[in-house]
Design goal:
Blueprint lengths: L1 H29 L23 E11 L13 E2 L6 H9 L3 E4 L14 E12 L2 E8 L6 H13 L7 H8 L14 E8 L1
Parallel strand pairs: 1-2
Antiparallel strand pairs: 1-5, 1-6, 3-4, 4-5
Helix pairs in contact: 2-3
């Protein structure tokens, strides 16, 4: 009887802890804008830092490639009219994988100590009229993803060859890269810790 009671007690404590986490998530959710939702909550150690403790982040950038943009997509994608060579854009995006100095893609006047970052993945694909670019790395500079996307669109339009991406990267010069893409379309989709 003692072991059965102990198992029941541990089960109740586990359910109670789960219920407590859900209640915490609900309390947090009440303070957030209606388009942000808490899917889960967990207690973090006292030394946890959301920004500096991240091991990797994944950003997604959405390009609507058609003559007319859907009114439902207008706020969530950069509208680019005219054909884009997605295969060339993807080939150029893959040149960014690995450890590189991304100074050519930082905001003008950036003051970070180092501009060297490691990108685990940099891929682009077409989904009908939507072109989706995803990049995962150990850190990002201010406006870096948007500057990369602007450079990819220059390649996709045929104004520059695929090899130009490598030249821009090696130059470390922001003026050599493409324009900064519109903020619509950029999403932080994942942060990995430990």
């Amino acid at each position: 009887m003692g072991q059965s009671f102990q198992r029941q007690h541990e089960g109740c404590r586990a359910r109670s802890a789960c219920l407590q986490r859900r209640r915490s998530a609900i309390r947090i959710e009440r303070r957030l804008p209606p388009d942000v939702r808490v899917l889960s909550a967990a207690e973090a150690p006292p030394a946890f830092h959301a920004r500096f403790g991240a091991r990797a982040k994944t950003y997604r950038y959405r390009i609507w490639n058609a003559d007319v943009i859907s009114p439902f997509e207008r706020r969530y994608a950069w509208h680019v009219v005219g054909p884009l060579d997605v295969a060339s854009m993807d080939a150029a995006a893959r040149l960014l994988e690995g450890r590189h100095d991304f100074a050519a893609f930082r905001a003008a006047g950036g003051t970070t100590r180092t501009t060297t970052r490691t990108m685990a993945a940099s891929r682009l694909e077409r989904r009908d009229r939507l072109i989706v670019y995803e990049i995962t790395g150990d850190g990002f500079l201010r406006y870096m993803v948007r500057a990369i996307v602007g450079t990819l669109v220059e390649i996709g339009c045929g104004r520059r060859p695929v090899a130009w991406m490598g030249e821009v990267l090696a130059s470390r010069d922001r003026a050599r890269a493409g324009p900064t893409a519109s903020p619509e379309g950029l999403f932080l989709v994942r942060v990995d810790y430990e």
